Transglutaminase-like enzyme, putative cysteine protease (Bradyrhizobium erythrophlei), 278 residues
Amino acid sequence: MQIRAGYDIAFQCFQETPMVLMLSIEPARLGDLLSEHRIEFSPELAARDYVDMFGNTCTRIVAPPGLVEIRNDFLIGDSGLPDEVAPDARQLDVGELPDDALIYLLASRYCDTEKLSSLAWSLFAGIAPGWQRVQAICDYAHDRICFGYHHARSDRTASEGHEERIGVCRDFAHLAVTLCRCMNIPARYCTGYLGDIGVPVDPAPMDFSAWFEVYLDGRWFTFDARHNHPRIGRIVMARGRDAADVAISTNFGPAQLVKFSVITGEVVSEADQVSRAA
């Protein structure tokens, strides 16, 4: 399957403003690209990429005063398969974990494990470790929080999301990640594109999405506490401990977001359209 994805984002800068952008797809998917993947700036700006401590591609710019527009539009190939489900995947003891997974057991800015540890053990200690326990955590976060774009708040922690019971996709992910870490399951936050492929179309404006991955049986598996259902066509942009590590823009000075448009969806040929209509 082919997926078209991209964005058109603009900032009003009130002075020369250095920025770090995290708007590139993960390096592992570069081989799937079917068109050029290039961040375009208006006005044209000098930009350079670097790789952060989590393996994410970051772009550095210095935005001039005034309106700065950032765009991308690309095609990428995808297997068309939903997220993998592995009910027998086992939870590793902490002593078995690789060194680079240990950071995903620790508290972070939005994943305040110390405030939810007792709750987590009271709810999930009796559930078989491994896939079943992670799914139970995912179910709990999915049921606990009511989704709504008007509930968005940039500084909400996992424990606050749990108490307030409202939020957006990042809040679902933060809560699930935190509860997993409380149960000694490495969990990391993911952000990227997720279109309405194989599901009813959401009438709300499209946005980047957030989900999470857990380390079971020696590898990472995808879970999504907001949708709580295997989905097709995820395109990861970045991974980290929580949303603070994967912000689409970090501005070192005053800048106002004045335009934000995201697209992602399956490219359906005319022949496929006729076939599906038949």
